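Exam prep: given the inputs below (a chain plus RRO), describe the expected output before reading on.
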Amino acid sequence: MKKIDTTASINGIKLPLCIMNASGVLCTTEQELSNLLNSFSGGIVTKSCTYKPRKGNVIPRYFEWNIGSINSMGLPNLGINFYLSFLEKKKINKPIFLSISGLSKEENYFLVKKANESSKITAIELNLSCPNIVEKEKMLGYDFYQISNFIENIFKFNKKPLGIKLPPYFREEHIKNMALVLNQFPIFFVTCINSLPNGLFIDPMKESVVIRPKKGFGGIGGSIIKPFALANIHKFYTYLRKDISIIGCGGISSGKDIFEHILCGASAVQIGTQFMKEGISVFERLKKELIFILEKKNYSSINSFKGKLKNF
Ligand code: RRO
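Solution:
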């Protein structure tokens, strides 16, 4: 049997495995990040950080059921200085993606500048799609007027590989317009998609919402969002410059799901809800399941089928 290659390249950033965690899931504290460093994951994405540490929203703020999850975490994180000094102390054995989610454009500029000072960060994942923060500014991922100027300003000083975590879009013209903007900049990758904003899951027995913040409304993840993730990945694959890689995120709980993401154009994938449910062993299981599928299909690497989804 020939050796199956499950490594990945994100616009030249080499991952020992094409599977990593999604930002936000078990990647906030020293313990969680150490666990990820010692795991099979092909890279590490940190919890989106702000300048000051944040406690986040009141609990309960996360709930899961068989096919989905809902969260309104409210950006709980230990502040950028914690993540930078944690990484300084550690021996790093895989690419590190520092996720940044400032509460204003100015805060994002500041955070990107700070991240540029660290040699331990492989790339920045700029989160322009947090669904749960109601601050004065509109979510940049949905602000087609401001995003171009914002990214232009970032690239005036940013020297690190930088990607953007996008929200889900539900109209082709939105994806096309966003791709046209992104194509103008030296962006390394996009991550598609963040959770579906403003969902509502309820408990009919208790006749109640299941999370406390925002009257129960929150971002939806898990298996039920996979069709939206695949649609966004595939459309962006069509419209983005070919050197901008796509990291697929949304609804992955099996090797088959990873195969589907890659078929739609993803170069690597992130695991959110399923990592939360299953814990750190998820990466090894998914790797085995992906290899099993590739063996059956006689594919030796991700590049043999990436983006090659067929139409009728
Ligand atoms: O912390 C959160 O509430 C959160 C963030 Br920043 C995000 O980007 N996506 C999400 O589902 N939750």
